[in-house]
Amino acid sequence: MTAVDYGTYLEVVYILYNLSTRQHELVTVKLPPENPEIETATKIFPAADWFEREMSEMFGIKIRGRKTDRLLLKEWNGAEPPLRKSFKWQNRGYKTLE
Amino acid sequence: MGVMRINVGPIHPSTHGVLRLIVDVDGDTVKSVEPRIGFLHRGVEKLMENRMYMQSPSYTEKLDYVAPMAWDDLFVSSVEKAIGIEVKERAKYARTILLEFQRIASHLLWLGTFVNDNGQLFTLFMWAFRERAEVLKLLEDVSGSRMFYVNWRLGGLQRELPADFKKRAYALCDYLQQHISEYPDLLDSNPVFLERTRGVGVLSKSDAITYGASGPVLRGSGVAEDTRQSEPYYVYDKVTFRVPIGSKGDCYDRYRVRYEEMLQSIRIIRQALDLMPDTGDMIGMPIRLIGPNAKPDPVMVRRELPRGEGIIYMIPDKQRPYRIYLRSPAFANLSLLGRMSVNCKFADLFPVLGSIDIVLAEVDR
Predict the structure, then answer these.
(1) Does residue A9 belong to the interface with chain B, where contact is any CB pair within 8 Å?
(2) Of A33, A51, B6, B17, most Cβ neighbours within 10 A?
(3) CATH among 3.30.1330.40, 3.20.20.70, 1.10.645.10, 3.40.50.300 for B41-351
(4) pTM for this prediction
């Protein structure tokens, strides 16, 4: 489970795999870039737990239906979610390679 | 006495990296475990989105420093799929052989440290490292470096295999077969090892499926799911091998699954060496810009890494991935630790953690 920032919209991607038929399926959901919210997937797929938390931190997507967890991978919540395209690591005092 | 909360880590020799565990214990019995990760988070996905395709393999390799070649393969395969490049016939065999050697090296390191966790200090650790060193020597001669190979190229490998590769690989298979067969003498007839692994850290079949385990952890719980078999890539459909599964889902089953996998890997390597053509091109192209062939369609590649099923979901762009998502198997498996170790003794917590086979660099990314 992950998300993609397309600029004008966000896309949440669920990668599903059926162990008995051995088929996988991609389910995508489009969300607006401002204040995105999505229902939790853990009620149907408990395996989505950590993946959902990771996605929420990295893209600033609020997950409805679950209590607020502590941060999983990030240490603190900065101004911008890091995997959004608006987050520029080049502007943070590091030299770029190009 | 009530429930006591204990902090373990983040720096602790038994956690195989920087992992913090918040453990609630009642006397000596573990009531709940909460893994806290993220100490090694460096934003690899973001870094890769800002770098050329050619620069990225060094990032994917450092995710799993125990089996870098497997991640190398996963990334390069996803780029190949994005451009639509077919892997050269001889390179398919070479890649299969090298990946299986890498799997053996990774499982050997796991076995040595796992047995260490169980208190059987150093004999098997030294044995496993002795065998692993032989495997790494061969991989070094193939790629030029001992740990971080970066010898995967589009459609093939970076260079031709050494002239005596087949002879040495056969000899190495014999060597590994002989020495790995000695391990059960030290483990399966060892009452202390059996006592500490049998019935400890049980993960039921339904829990393993529901909570997203993969790889040896899933197979140890009795689910015969292996990407090499369910969705064969390279020459895995031309060789015969068995997918070992456990029955109870305890630490012992996970050990047996990995042990059997090593023997199956040797079997795969021998068959692939038999089938591999002696002549033919196997040099691949450098991972340059994808250029005009770039299709913005998302690409998804699954591979059976030593630790479980790895997935790359990539949206390619001309110079660099627009978005790349790395599904790390250890990340999903570690989230199951709380379920596995409920009601086990505190001293058994680290063997259970060891039996998952985590690499924290891959968990945190």
Answers:
(1) no
(2) A51
(3) 1.10.645.10
(4) 0.87
